[in-house]
Write a structure and sequence with these properties.
Layout lengths: L2 H17 L6 H19 L6 H10 L10 H19 L7 H12 L3 H4 L14 E2 L2 E2 L3 H5 L2 H13 L4 H15 L6 H15 L12 H13 L4 H25 L7
Antiparallel strand pairs: 1-2
């Protein structure tokens, strides 16, 4: 399954790595990815920051609050920067519960105390939850399955499952378990990219405009018991992002005569 998607993805990835990623300074390339990914991942959860707002905050810090943005949104974005940088600085670490908890702690550190009284960043939820139109299962039973998710994902990658497939399966099941009081989406997207970056693959960015399809693909795991839709979604998003940036690089390299 997904043979055609894998072949297309790998062909585009080879061009993307050669023509874009390898041509840039490694730190500048990662900062570019951090800004773009942080903007869209937080936007999916309701943050109103634009890419330019995100870049300004990343470069200037909390002393430069973009016009019209709340302090809570700024704190959420700053937390996401710290979680992203922790993730990229620990790519040599194995996937583990301690890593999962630390990323969630960083993602929610300065916002969760204002959203949910008594909730602790980085600690599993102590009560059952609901979100949107979904009633989640027993939190004790779901949290108890997190070690299995870690073990199964690690084994899948060791056994040669394609990293995009493994990342999609991990993400879908992680969101199904929904183990934290807040930040499950942001944490899950960071962890999926931890798996991809660890395998030497480009960052996968789910853009705000893809939110509806993304949520629908996640919902299919609950309603139909399959992650096939989410995996296909991951491949499509990854390929489209690389193709778009390859075309942008080509277009912006053309000779232009202004005079």
């Amino acid at each position: 399954m997904f043979e055609q998607e894998i072949e297309k993805y790998e062909n585009v990835r080879m061009q993307f790595q050669k023509r874009i990623a390898d041509k840039m300074d490694a730190d500048e390339w990662m900062e570019y990815n951090e800004i773009l990914f942080s903007c869209h991942s937080c936007a999916i959860e309701g943050n109103s920051f634009s890419v330019d707002d995100t870049r300004i905050l990343r470069e200037q810090g909390m002393r430069m609050v973009p016009v019209g943005r709340s302090l809570l949104e700024c704190a959420e974005m700053a937390d996401h920067f710290r979680a992203f940088e922790y993730m990229t600085n620990h790519l040599s670490d194995p996937l583990s519960e301690s890593l999962i908890k630390e990323i969630n702690r960083l993602v929610t550190q300065n916002t969760l105390p204002f959203k949910v009284k008594g909730a602790v960043p980085g600690e599993y939820t102590t009560q059952d939850m609901a979100a949107g139109d979904t009633i989640f299962g027993s939190h004790q039973q779901l949290i108890a399955r997190v070690p299995h998710l870690v073990e199964a994902t690690t084994k899948a990658l060791y056994d040669g499952v394609h990293p995009v497939v493994a990342a999609a399966k991990f993400h879908g099941y992680f969101e199904y378990l929904h183990p934290f009081r807040d930040g499950n989406g942001r944490t899950g997207r960071l962890l999926s990219n931890f798996l991809l970056l660890k395998a030497g693959h480009p960052l996968l960015i789910v853009k705000l405009e893809d939110r509806e399809n993304y949520i629908s693909a996640l919902r299919m795991i609950r309603t139909e018991g399959t992650d096939e839709y989410l995996t296909s979604f991951f491949f499509r998003v990854a390929i489209e992002r690389m193709q778009h940036e390859l075309e942008q690089k080509k277009r912006n390299s053309r000779q232009t005569f202004l005079f």
